[in-house]
């Protein structure tokens, strides 16, 4: 949880960390600060500036000034700087991972280390793509030269969430900068420390103003970015609700947007997959070890009726064996929910499931009220079984470890239920019959379908949502070209 205080850093383990504007670590213009808490112990760990519109102005001015030179730098030279950042980040992954675990509550061993490593990989991937910012030639005849250029957009405004903060920040910074844009980013108020640490490392290699990272609250600071006239492109990851606000702000100024929003992703298990590997896959897809605080969580489990009970019995055995505890403890599999607001929200959904007579609690339930797990925002993996796909728990993004298991018998009905959602981000299909698995993959309305695995994104995948899960792609070469460049056509009469 974040609270606001006026100035004066307290004696905490991380102390105070400034924002990055124009190459400098700075305080907010107002001097106001946000206290960042460790959600596993409910203790303050650091303060960061509470940026507002005045700070956004400063950052946009710095990014605008830096843009002229940065866009003219040959793309491969920009790429080389990203590669240096990748190596510097790689050397500090442990520090980065510990910071992420401390502020997000995500377990160090199962989550934060992986996030720190993939962050270095993201810079490495995009660092190699400078030469791919290619245009085309258009064959208009011998006397005409017509070609296109991929030009940057200008200052990109980015707003990111807290669930995988450093990775999600890198996914915007690396492609935007490679393509020649500069950036003003706002970190999430609940998890700014890892992002600021990464920004500090980036700044060792970048000209001042190319990357600016602010800390602050949603409407106050993020809203000021969304409506700033100096910003030429908006890139947002977070809730669908705020995504709509960003898109409206963009409409006012006809600014392109990329939105990576929520999900309620289906997992369809065929009767031949009633096996341990598929159970492990469901646990991974549900992101139980990130407390299911993931936009791609496979939170609707469609189980064939023949295996419904046996599969859930296996799932219970494995999911309840996961160790919940201090995110920094190497033995911990599952850490904590990010803040009190999200914790309360998750508990409310569980409570609703418990109260509903036609929903059966398979395992889990409300968090313990006493003992060590009551000292932080710990929740426990919970599964409800119900025949329907139409109750609130099966329709809304819970962003907590609450899985609904739904019975099916007819394949077409399973796919129809899977698609009966306003979201369409990820999906998972489980079967040995690859033809059947791929037919299902093609029929599902989601931006990303995995067959027989429940892993995270890898740089190079064009990742993004269908329907209200988002617009645009950012995780790949095509994502960089589509989201962070604009095409210009130049046509020359060669007869003059
Ligand atoms: P949120 O969408 O409010 O926050 C994400 C980011 O947007 C944060 O940096 C926040 O400061 C900023 N923001 C909030 N209001 C804004 C505004 N009016 N203008 C500009 N920026 C604004 O998400 P929140 O409240 O942390 O979580 C609520 C729900 O959103 C979760 O339960 C989950 O369902 C969903 N969510 C989805 C994520 C995803 O990866 N797709 C990530 C985080 C949350
Ligand atoms: Mg919010």
Give a quick rundown of the structure.
With 496 residues, the chain is of the alpha/beta class. It contains 15 helices and 24 strands. It folds into two domains: 11-261 and 468-489, Aldehyde Dehydrogenase, Chain A, domain 1 (3-Layer(aba) Sandwich); 266-459, Aldehyde Dehydrogenase, Chain A, domain 2 (3-Layer(aba) Sandwich).
Helical content class: 25-40%
Count of structural domains: 2
Q: What's the architecture of the largest domain, going by CATH?
A: 3-Layer(aba) Sandwich
| Biggest sheet character | 7 strands, mixed
Ranges where pLDDT stays below 50 over 5 or more residues in a row are 1-12
> What is the overall pLDDT average?
96
The ligands bound in this entry are: 1,4-dihydronicotinamide adenine dinucleotide, magnesium ion
Tell me the distance between the termini: 67 Å
Q: Could you tell me the radius of gyration in angstroms?
A: 23 Å
> Looking at the structure, what is the overall shape?
globular
Q: Strand percentage, roughly?
A: 15-25%
Assigned CATH class of the largest domain? Alpha Beta
Sheet with the most strands: spatial strand order: 16-17-18-15-14-20-21
Relevant CATH superfamily of the largest domain: Aldehyde Dehydrogenase, Chain A, domain 1
Note the total helix count: 15
Do you know the CATH topology of the largest domain?
Aldehyde Dehydrogenase, Chain A, domain 1
